[in-house]
């Protein structure tokens, strides 16, 4: 018979009230308590905590405290990752983040879900579906990404969005629910904001 942890990671319905998962959540909370209360200058010490807690990291990442997650071991970071203040990752299922991803403040990545009907929900049943954020994605502040979502490479998610479905590559998507606004083109390379020009990146 599968344990609750095995069911959780497999994407099956499970109950999170068992001792094993409780202890693992407590361990993550203890580690993040230290992480979130270290002096701002203690960058290496903070990163070492996350290297031990996460499933995978590289040597180049930066997460501004405070940061929260459920377990940590289901978080897989690509190279050159940056997250601003108040990132929350409910990593009951794997959260895979590619290279060169930027995340704004107050963003939440939720792999966890609960039954709509109150009886199984009150009984403690839940499920988890993985989130996949591909290379070069920028997620604006106050965005929520729901269970099972994939965000395609190079795409931008506008601030305040609620992402309930997959987002394709190379688009700007915004809103609640989040929808594709337009495709990103080469013209976007020449502009930062409105008509303010930036240096030619190819020189």
Explain this structure to me?
The chain is α/β, with parallel strands linked by helices. It has a single domain (4-186), classed as Hexapeptide repeat proteins (UDP N-Acetylglucosamine Acyltransferase, domain 1), CATH 2.160.10. 21% of the residues lie in helices and 29% in strands. The protein has helices spanning 4-10, 19-37, 43-53, 118-122, and strands at 14-15, 61-63, 67-69, 75-77, 81-83, 87-90, 95-97, 102-103, 108-110, 112-113, 125-128, 131-133, 138-139, 144-145, 150-151, 156-157, 162-163, 171-174, 179-183, 191-193, 196-197. Strands 2-5-8-13-16-18-19 form a seven-stranded mixed sheet, with no helix packed on it. Strand 18 and strand 19 form a beta hairpin. The longest helix has 19 residues, at 19-37.
Which features would summarize this protein structure in a list?
203 residues; alpha/beta; UDP N-Acetylglucosamine Acyltransferase, domain 1; seven-stranded mixed beta sheet; five-stranded parallel beta sheet
């Amino acid at each position: 018979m599968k344990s609750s942890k095995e069911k959780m990671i497999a994407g099956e319905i499970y109950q999170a009230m068992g001792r094993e998962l409780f202890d693992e959540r407590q361990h993550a909370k203890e580690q993040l308590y230290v992480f979130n209360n270290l002096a701002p200058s203690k960058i290496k010490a903070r990163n070492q905590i996350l290297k031990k807690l996460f499933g995978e990291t590289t040597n180049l990442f930066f997460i501004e405290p405070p940061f929260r997650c459920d377990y940590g071991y289901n978080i897989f970071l690509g190279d050159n990752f940056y997250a601003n203040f108040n990132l929350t990752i409910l990593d009951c299922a794997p959260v895979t983040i590619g290279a060169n991803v930027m995340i704004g403040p107050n963003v939440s990545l939720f792999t966890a879900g609960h039954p709509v009907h109150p009886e199984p929900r009150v009984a403690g049943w839940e499920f988890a579906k993985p989130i996949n954020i591909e290379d070069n994605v920028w997620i604006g502040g106050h965005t929520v990404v729901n269970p099972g979502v994939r965000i395609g490479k190079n795409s931008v998610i506008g601030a305040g969005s609620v992402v309930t479905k997959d987002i394709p590559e190379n688009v700007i998507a915004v809103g609640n629910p989040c929808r594709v606004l337009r495709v990103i083109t080469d013209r976007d390379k020449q502009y930062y904001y409105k008509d303010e020009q930036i240096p030619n990146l190819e020189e």
